């Protein structure tokens, strides 16, 4: 049961607003988080939405959802993180539905597990198949950098890979308490870029979903 | 020193309940003591209020419900089980993260021992049945058996369960699982079309119910007593019952759903957080009732339409046939033929059987009398396929 993991979610979904006008609904930024099983997707999304490393996680079955509202340039934006199952069988027929209208993709690998890094081309390929356009911003996150003695994926190798695929690379830890703001910064950078990038203007449709206009490849600074 | 007092919540209700429970336990033992054991009353008691009540009884009745002879258990797994398994890594990751499935007051050492047994149990079944594929969530099912009946019996029961009830989840792909999920919305539509339409508009999909279905709710319920109660029910019923139960939960929360923003995220979020204080007995009875009113054969066509590309349009053509289709050997052979015949069977689905009076009557009884009557109805329908099911297992 994921009660602990999910308990953070309340903070966002209730938009209580008292006033004469209907509440202005915040715009939504939909981000999907993918990567092999056990790389720390659930921990990363939890860390961002709840502000802490979860005591324990369970295998994610299907798709979990976490959300957090942030203020960017005085505008309230809801960041929705869709946390997906790592096992291949779930991706093939299940997760597809949740790629719909995503604004960004976060690929995660485990820095202490080279196999999870080697899976990345498959994930990238699969993502391409699900997404309608090529211009959705994507970032690469190497997780568990706190396990310094167990690192199997050297930064330069990861950086080269990220460059080849036109993605910024972030090496981080969902766990390390000293890295307090890093996970936060990754998602916030993404949110800022998505919001401010001229060609990535989030346009609000009447039904309150937002669509991305065609955009050029995002250029982001690497944090590592 | 204080007088020892039997623990009771409400004096009268409590005593009534105790008495009822005692009577049921005695009844179950009576059935068990008569050789050959009559499965029908055991099914009925597994479904009716409270289910099988205590683990001691579950140890005896679960094997009967699955037609497993506990004098003929799986052998202890061989030494090289782990080395030879392609699934070992994934299973290990999932079992390691499954702490929540164990009683919170269990000493670490004991829990770790059980986790090792859990890994072996899963791998052994997979090794003996190469046609079965591991899925994340399977461990949530196996752990339930392990905790109730112990390692050897668990392995044997789980093998039977995996080649029957869970068979569709263990295909190489999840296409058939997806197809079973496609029954969810048509069931909801039958009972509450407004809710159905709202959910369709939100495009919520059905993945919120995926973990419910493939773990028989073991992944999402934190109170183990509720989990085993549901397992009593599901073991006694048709393999599609968990999807009816899923629908009943959604229906039970209709007002919450309708009060939600009509978008995928809000509705998915609401529904995937299962309330822990569900009125299980009422919901079980309602699920049984829906099953009788809207058997899978009735819903099959709508379920098929839910699917954009109709891969396995007719996994469950009829609820009587379904038990035959759950047989491992027929499934494998038929799957290929079924694909060829998809067109044909889709046509035959158009002619659904008219509901018989008895079904209507039982369904109405179930709805009005709530508990009991519906359970009886489910048993009746379960019995209609049970004899076949049992015959097939014991050729
Ligand atoms: N040391 C360390 N462990 C982590 C970190 N992130 C996740 N983990 C652990 O890795 C395991 C898998 O994490 P989880 O989030 O469930 O992975 P997922 O399958 O990708 O969702 C868990 O045991 C976590 O405690 C991290 O940054 N550092
Ligand atoms: Mg996860």
Automatic annotation (TrEMBL), chain A:
Cofactor(s) it depends on: Mg(2+)
GO MF terms, alphabetically ordered: G protein activity; GTP binding
Catalytic activity, EC: 3.6.5.2
GO biological process annotation, one example: Rab protein signal transduction
Protein name per UniProt: small monomeric GTPase
Catalyzed reaction equations: GTP + H2O = GDP + phosphate + H(+)
Species of provenance: Python bivittatus
Gene3D superfamilies, per database record: P-loop containing nucleotide triphosphate hydrolases
Family the UniProt entry places it in: Belongs to the small GTPase superfamily. Rab family.
PANTHER family linked to this entry: PTHR47978
Transmembrane portions of the chain: none
Topology of this chain in the membrane: Lipid-anchor
InterPro entries on file: P-loop_NTPase (IPR027417), Rab33A/B (IPR041822), Small_GTP-bd (IPR005225), Small_GTPase (IPR001806)
Subcellular location: Endomembrane system
Matching CDD domains: Rab33B_Rab33A (cd04115)
Keywords assigned: GTP-binding, Hydrolase, Lipoprotein, Membrane, Methylation, Nucleotide-binding, Prenylation
One Pfam family here: Ras
Lineage per the UniProt record: Eukaryota, Metazoa, Chordata, Craniata, Vertebrata
Coarse class of the protein's main subcellular location: membrane
Major enzyme class: hydrolase
Highest taxon in the source lineage: Eukaryota
Cellular-component GO terms for this entry: Golgi apparatus
UniProtKB/TrEMBL annotation, chain B:
Keyword Membrane: yes
Membrane topology, record value: Multi-pass membrane protein
SMART domains named among the record's database cross-references: TBC (SM00164)
Domain called Rab-GAP TBC: residue spans: 52-238
Residues annotated as transmembrane: 233-251, 359-379
SUPFAM superfamilies the UniProt entry points to: Ypt/Rab-GAP domain of gyp1p
Family annotation (Pfam families): RabGAP-TBC (PF00566)
Superkingdom of this protein's organism: Eukaryota
An individual GO BP term: vesicle organization
Location of this chain's protein in the cell: Membrane
Keyword Cell membrane in annotation: no
Gene Ontology molecular function terms on file: GTPase activator activity
GO CC, any one term: endoplasmic reticulum membrane
Keywords from the named record: GTPase activation, Membrane, Transmembrane, Transmembrane helix
Protein name per the record: TBC1 domain family member 20
Organism: Python bivittatus
């Amino acid at each position: 049961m994921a009660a602990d993991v999910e308990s953070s979610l309340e903070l966002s979904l209730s938009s209580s607003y008292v006033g004469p006008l209907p509440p202005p609904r915040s715009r939504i930024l939909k981000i999907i988080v993918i990567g092999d099983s056990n790389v720390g997707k659930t921990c990363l999304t939890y860390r961002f939405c709840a502000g802490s490393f979860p005591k324990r996680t369970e295998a994610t079955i299907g798709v979990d959802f976490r959300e957090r509202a942030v203020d960017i340039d005085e505008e309230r934006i809801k960041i929705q993180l869709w946390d997906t199952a790592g096992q291949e069988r779930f991706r093939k027929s299940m997760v597809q539905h949740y790629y719909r209208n995503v604004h960004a993709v976060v690929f995660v690998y485990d820095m202490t597990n080279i196999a999870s890094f080697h899976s990345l081309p498959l994930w990238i390929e699969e993502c391409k198949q699900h997404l309608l356009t090529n211009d959705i911003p994507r970032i690469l996150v190497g997780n568990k950098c706190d396990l310094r003695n167990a690192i199997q994926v050297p930064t330069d190798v990861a950086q080269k890979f990220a460059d080849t695929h036109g993605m910024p690379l972030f090496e981080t830890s969902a766990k390390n308490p000293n890295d307090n703001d890093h996970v936060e910064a990754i998602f916030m950078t993404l949110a800022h870029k998505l919001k401010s990038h001229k060609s990535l203007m989030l346009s609000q449709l009447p039904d309150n979903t937002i669509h991305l206009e065609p955009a050029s490849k995002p250029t982001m600074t690497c944090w590592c | 020193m204080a007088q020892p007092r039997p623990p009771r919540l409400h004096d009268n209700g409590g005593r009534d309940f105790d008495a009822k429970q005692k009577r049921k336990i005695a009844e179950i033992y009576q059935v068990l003591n008569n050789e050959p054991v009559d499965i029908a009353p055991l099914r009925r008691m597994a479904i009716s209020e409270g289910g099988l009540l205590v683990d001691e009884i579950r140890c005896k009745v679960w094997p009967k419900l699955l037609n497993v002879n506990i004098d003929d258990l799986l052998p202890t797994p061989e030494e090289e089980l782990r080395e030879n398994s392609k699934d070992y890594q994934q299973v290990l990751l999932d079992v390691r993260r499954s702490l929540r499935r164990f009683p919170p007051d269990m000493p670490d050492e004991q829990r770790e021992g059980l986790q090792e047994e859990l890994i072996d149990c899963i791998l052994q079944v997979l090794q003996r049945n190469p046609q079965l594929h591991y899925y994340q969530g399977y461990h949530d099912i196996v752990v339930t058996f392990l905790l109730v009946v112990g390692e050897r019996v668990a392995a044997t029961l789980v093998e039977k369960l995996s080649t029957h009830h869970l068979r569709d989840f263990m295909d190489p792909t999840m296409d058939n699982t997806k197809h079973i999920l496609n029954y969810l919305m048509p069931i909801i539509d039958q009972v509450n079309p407004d809710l159905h339409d709202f959910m369709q508009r939100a495009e919520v999909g059905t993945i919120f119910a995926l973990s419910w279905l493939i773990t028989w709710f073991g992944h999402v319920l934190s109170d183990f007593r509720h989990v085993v109660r549901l397992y009593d029910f599901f073991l006694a019923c048709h393999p599609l019952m968990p999807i009816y139960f899923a629908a009943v939960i959604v229906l039970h929360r209709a007002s919450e759903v309708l009060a939600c923003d009509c978008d995928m995220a809000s509705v998915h979020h609401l529904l995937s957080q299962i309330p822990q204080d569900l009125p299980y007995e009422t919901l079980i009875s309602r699920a049984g009732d829906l099953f009788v009113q809207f058997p899978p054969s009735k819903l099959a066509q709508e379920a098929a339409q839910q699917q954009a590309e109709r891969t396995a349009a007719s996994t469950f053509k009829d609820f009587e046939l379904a038990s035959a289709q759950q047989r491992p050997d027929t499934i494998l052979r038929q799957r290929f033929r079924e694909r060829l015949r998809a067109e044909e069977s889709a046509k035959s689905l158009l002619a659904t059987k008219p509901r018989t009076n008895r079904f209507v009557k039982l369904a109405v009884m179930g709805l009005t009398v709530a508990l009991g009557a519906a359970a009886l109805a489910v048993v009746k329908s379960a019995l209609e396929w049970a004899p076949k099911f049992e015959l097939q297992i014991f050729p």
